[in-house]
Amino acid sequence: MYTDNRFIEFTDIAIIGMSGRFPNAYTIEEFFNNLKNEKESIRLLNDDELKEAGVSEELLKNTSYKKYGSVLNNIKEFDNEFFDFTPYEAKITDPQHRIFLECVWEALEDAGYIPNKYKGIIGLYGSTSMSSYLLSNILKSEDVFKEGINYPILIANDKDYLCTRASYKLDLRGPSMTVQTACSSSLVAIHLACQSLINQECDIALAGGVSITVPQTSGYLYKEGGILSKDGHCRAFDDQASGTVKGNGCGIVTLKRLEEAIEDRDTIYAVIKGTSINNDGANKIGFTAPSIQGQAKVIDEALALTGISPNKIGYVETHGTGTPLGDPIEIRALSQAFQSTDKKQFCAIGSLKTNIGHLDAAAGVANIIKTALCLNNNVIPGSLNFSTENKQIDFENSPFYVNSSTKELEDEELNYAGVSAFGIGGTNAHAILTKAPSITKENHRLENYIFIFSGKNHKTLKQIEENLSNFLVQKEEMSLIDVAYTLGVGRDDFSVRNFVIGKTKEAIIEKMSSPSFKNEGNQKQMSELSYIWKLSDDQDKEIYRELYANVSYFGKTLNVISTEIEKIFGQKVTSKQLLGISNWEDTSISEEGKDILSTFANSYALAKLLEKFGLQPDSIYCQNKVQTYVAACITKSITLENTLQLLQKHTINEEVEIADIKSIKNQRYLL
Question: Is 183 a catalytic residue?
């Protein structure tokens, strides 16, 4: 349960899901572990790789040619059947589009929301780099334009269709647009997604970007004064800095209004307090050059929007390209935006580009993901390749210092952080993030937990089971009831299924490791779902009490019903009375009437809980009139208020005919 929601502003946006692909990291967890361990994922490419990428012998001998790259693994892999692509469609589709689509799906799953189960509106904002796959692969075929414009190839590679095709494939019905502002694109996409949520245009917004150069292992030609590094390393803010290296990767964040995220008990990585964007205009030495005034203003605006004092910002994830021109300008701009504080060297800065290179259109979202994980884990990873301060930067008299080694922090040491992304062409973006609200653990304990798995085929199912097993092994602390809930409600229902039941994490891991479990997984055609209510007995009452004690949604529903009963009957009725935990106070309701109310209230609360879990019955079999009232109520054939009014007649022995209930579609009764 989140406890400090008194600080919530209506503009606060929660990051409730994340997904990414980065060099040497297939998951967000691997990505952050690499950062904490100060791993540099830019590597030296061998001549065989370079030749296979089409690099000529002449270029290899050029002393200005640099054999370095930041390589994303497995870009050729794609489950085309899962996303309903034909083999041909998958073949002609830019890997940027394919991986972006995968990460959008994974970010939704990480948040625990699936489009066909979620009743709200989901929007999508994204960015991508130019399609080098189109240039280096597709256009080399002589058959591409034999019959004029080839629309399948256009759709599969052009920036315009990045988000709209993902929205089509995943049935996302909110705003969907591609955002292109060069290096700041994905942070601008996040800004627009936040605005869309604030303006109520959607209920969940996904935002991010992707940048993959094909081929990845082609190195680059160094040019003095350019953005690319002289020695194959990014040395942000160091005196030996000479530029960056082109990186490859993808990142997506799932966003939701904070107040609703808290209400829905979503996992929250961090909170976006405010974002700002602007453009330099002509106030700089050239179109591609950065501007101190433009950068300072966008940071100042973000701080002003949040009302947060600069001296509370403990970390800034900089744009940090490691260029002799860009680094000093960025620090001067930050210092100008922080000029209201006299404190010196209190705010750590770092640059992700020292780890994985420059992700271009995906750089901003990668910075957001890193910073959200810093806040979530109380860790600031070291910014690499820093030894001597850039002589053009006066760090000693600024609020900033380069965090050159990983720092483990106390809980309250880092509460606010800034994130920058600045695009060639002058579009600047800055975001202010803060920690997720603190939570108190709710003591939910059930006799057994059921973990449900489903996939489109057996191979996918086994991968899902393996992923979950690894997650259970790696995570020391977790809520089994939350895992069970997410697997049951926050995942799509596919035809190949399996499940495991256990009392503890260790028991579940043991069962999932057994040969019998690994060989299971059945493919069955979904049939009609029917509810069959039996006559209530003491065992049922015990189940209802356990649900009330451990499943908050059941308890909340029962509390609502007891309040409504009190309104209709004019007498004090509590949930504990309906559960048989507390004695009824002096009341005119007969013993039979109490049993009727208890049966109705508990059955209704259970039906609503199953509905929350995504179960919608095609038919309901009832064994008495009270159960018929429940069936009528949950199918919205009659309101809860009118149902209780009918029950009031029943409890005072007035004759109630089934005709009192309006016709109910798709229900069958055994009365």
Answer: yes
